[in-house]
Amino acid sequence: MAQSTSTHEGTAHVGPHIPQLQWERVPGFEFVSNTNVASFLFLIFIVIISLAANKALKKKKSKLKSFFLNIVKFSDEQLRVSMWDDKKFSRKYFPLIVWLFFIVFLGNIWGLIIDWLGASVNGSLFYYLRPIHSDLNTTVALALLVVVTFLALWVKSHWWLAYSKSFFFNFTGSNLWEKCINVFVWWLHFIWIWSTIASLSLRLFWNIFAWIVLIWVISYLWVLMTQGLFNVWILISIPFWFFEIFVAIVQALVFSLLTLSYLNQAKEEH
C-alpha cells in the first residue's frame, strides 16, 4: 500500500515511498545496486519475449506469429514514412529505432510493476528493485548509444581525423568572414553533442522519476483521506496508474522519434 512501513538497516520508514535520486546499494552486497537487480530481471524478461517471438515466427501459422508480424509491419511502415520513403535507409536503422522504443516502453512498464509490487506486497522490495529508467546511469547509456550512432553516420563519408579537427578549428570558407563563422559554428556542433546526451538522458530520467514520486504521493494522500472507507483509495488511484502507462508510451515514442530525427539530420548532411 502507499502508506508503507519498511525496515532497512534498523531504521523504519512510514509514509509514501520517495526514491533517492541515485541508486541504492542492495543490503549485503557491496557492489550491487537495486538498479542492477532490476535491470538483470528485465533482461531476462526481454530474452524470454525474444525466444517466444523467434519460436512463433518459425511456425507456419499461429496467433502469436500474426501478432509479432503485425508489430513489425506497422513499425516498418511508420519508419519508412518518417524517412521520406527511403526504404533502404529505414530498413538499415529499423532494429535500432524499434529496439529503443520497446526498451524504453517495456522498461517503463517494468518500473510500474516494481512500484505496484512494492505498494501491494512489501515496501522493503524497493531496497532490492528500482525502476531502471529512474536511474540516470541507464538513461545516459541509452543517450550515448544514440549520439555515437549519429556521429558514426555523420562521419561515414569523411576522413575521421579531419572531421574531429574541424570541431576545434574549422577555418574553411571563401573569405575571412566565412572562415570565422565556420569556426564558431563547429564549436556549437561540439557543444551540441554533449547537450544532446544531457537532453536525451535527463528528459527520460526526470519524467519517469517525477511520475514515480507523484503517483506515490497521490496514493499516500488518498490513504490518509479515506481511512476507514474499506481502502477506497485503491479504486481512486487506478486512473493514475493507467495514466502512467500513457506516460510510458509517450516517453518511448519521444525517445525513438528524437533518435530518428538525429539520424535524418546526419543523413541530410550528405
List the main descriptive attributes of the protein structure presented here.
270 residues; mainly alpha; single chain; 2 strands
Please, how many domains?
1
Structural class: mainly alpha
Choose one word for the global shape.
globular
Estimate the mean pLDDT confidence: 78
Run of helices and strands: EEHHHHHHHH
Strand order of the largest sheet: 1-2
How is this structure best described in words?
This protein is mainly α. The protein has one domain (17-41, 101-268). It is built from eight helices and two strands, in the order ββαααααααα. Strands 1-2 form a two-stranded antiparallel sheet. Helix 1 (34-58) packs across helix 2. The model is unreliable at 1-12 (pLDDT under 50).
What topology emerges from the helices and strands here?
Elements (H helix, E strand, L loop, with lengths): L3 E5 L2 E5 L18 H25 L4 H20 L4 H6 L1 H27 L15 H19 L5 H10 L6 H50 L7 H36 L2
Antiparallel strand pairs: 1-2
Helix pairs in contact: 1-2, 4-8, 5-7, 5-8, 6-7, 7-8
Short précis:
With 270 residues, the chain is mainly alpha-helical. 71% of the residues lie in helices and 4% in strands.
